[in-house]
């Protein structure tokens, strides 16, 4: 009896320790009913999202507080959320900011400084960004002009590419610092695309790399590829978003794959877990536009994930989930993004 009680207490402690470090980052683009639906959410739907967070006592904090806590191994309350926007569209100022202010929720906007300096009409100018920053918004780096950062130019060497992208990132960071006075070294990858080389460069520059593939984050996350849950367009439906808001990060001790941008098709991913609050028999992965992935457990805590058939060229994902043992309505969630190139 005492042995059973000991194991029950031990399991409870392990479950809690695996969960309290987790958080979710949301990604938005437009708050508008007149712009492309795939990257937009209406003001009414956006208000419903924030109302759900408020009514269910979510801990909505600035992105820098979330990242700092995870990096330092500090305890975060369960249901911790950070809200982010990509591109700095005018409707973020006109529509999103007033709604966020009503809820008193902090948020981050990732901007493209060269497009702002060129006076592009669809993005906020520095005056609006400065105004929002004074009200508590974080303004951070989305590259100079939203290029595919991992793609090399024709006849460009690896060394030349590295110099060009380093200049792009540091120029953008300097312009934000000059105009807004903030210097958060967070880079949201344009289009959510990155490869091993880009991740290494971002890390060498002392930046945190942030994607737009799904999943929760915790202290064991790779800080050169933090995931975010897209919450616009098809992904704005509250009934499915609720599952993501309440999701948790797997405790992944090792992730092995050739590259996120790859000619390997189908690609293969190997995940090594610190097992705890989920049964491996309930672990499942799904492949974009394909269906269920093939799983091969090569040890008690390591699984190989493969698509049963080749993926289409371009962006794709493996989405892996498992229900929590402690709270079966909650799910652990991990996503691996791919960009499949012609061989």
TrEMBL record:
Q: Where is the NodB homology domain?
A: 79-343
One GO MF term? hydrolase activity, acting on carbon-nitrogen (but not peptide) bonds
Q: Pfam families attached here?
A: Polysacc_deac_1
GO annotation terms (biological process): carbohydrate metabolic process
Keyword Protein transport assigned: no
Concerning InterPro entries, the annotation shows: Glyco_hydro/deAcase_b/a-brl (IPR011330), NODB_dom (IPR002509), Polysacch_Deacetylase (IPR051398)
The protein's name: Polysaccharide deacetylase
The major lineage groups are: Bacteria, Pseudomonadati, Pseudomonadota, Gammaproteobacteria, Alteromonadales
